[in-house]
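Journal club side-thread
Mid-discussion, someone asked how the predicted structure for our own chain would compare to the paper's figures. Pasting it here so we can look after the session.
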Amino acid sequence: MSANHDLPVGKIDCCQVCGSKKLYKILDLGHQPPCDSLRWPRQLDEPETIYPLRFLVCESCSLGQIDYAVAAEELFFPDYPYRSGITATLVEKLSRTAVSTLSRFAFPSGSLVLDIGSNDGTVLKAFQERGMRVLGIEATNIAKIANESGVETLQAFFNEDVATQIRTTHGPASVVAATNVFAHIASLGSIIRGVSHLLEDGGVFVTESHYVLDLLETSQYDSIYHEHLRYYSLKSLIALFKQYDFTVCDVERIDNYGGSIRVFARKGQGHQVAPSIAELLAVEEQAGLYGREVYDDFAAKVLKARQDLLALVLEAKKSGKTVIGIGCPGRASTLMNFTGLAPDLIPYIAEQSTSLKLGLFLPGLHVPIVDEKRMFEEQPDYAIMLSWHYAEPIIRKLREKGLKSKIVIPLPEVKIYED
């Protein structure tokens, strides 16, 4: 059985890794707008495009996936409002990519490291600081910020043609990284073929993606959105890379973005495979990832968390209390649109003063995104932590800055922090 790894825009009717038609629908989140298509004030009276958002699992290779592909140019547009380098917690986590890779593979100083979807160069800076030559590939205008900060970055969508161009101008790469982007790309076949062309023999492709087991264990339906086409298991990644003559040789679970999987795949066959591979496959088997029951449990927990959050907000409003949101990552759009937290319930979302999203509006519901100074001035009764996956350091910082509101953690289950 073979799969089309270069997806056309539109409905997907077979597994994105193995091509199987045995897809089991877990959760229907309705029709939603792309999560980062934030609205400018002038757009609020214009039509808005929404797409189906359904979560399925392949019963053959255990890949979690959605069944509709939106055009990459619509998802990752030039003014895409995301920067990885403005959040200290995330900078620290992304820097570990370099530490983890270079501790496993003895590439000489000056070796070339590329990052696909490199954003503002945060990942590459950590490689650069450890003596590596670096090159970023970033489709959005954030590439300009990276170049200005000293990280050479090519503004383009990565594909086989771009890979050929880079190999000609920069030579072969020892490492290609794709952090929190490998599950986003519809033209997956073109990406892997391009990486293979770029890498020297024995070179390493390092990917970091949302891990389907973490998604299930923490009920994080809010990480399901159109940018995330796939939610990998280790089993599905091994099946994918085998089709392109890569050996998946090491793996680690990391806590980035609410739980991810970092996979090291070496170009060619016959490379030594670390014990971590068999160990994590055994964890997946024991967790029930290759059956249906764990997914049904996930769906039930998601519906309960949604109902509990909406009930809390409605009761607060009924009692005359104020409720706002804190932080506006992409996942906030899924959570709020699925739960129905419109501006009459949540009048605004507070973002840090350096955010590129200030003055914009959440897609779909059009909740305004404002400077967090307003939250500190108004001290609302409740604040829903929409970046709940980084709750601990954020709550600590907010308390230090004087926020007295009760903080609501929406997932894995609704919890209220009063201190």
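Post-session note: The mean pLDDT is 93.
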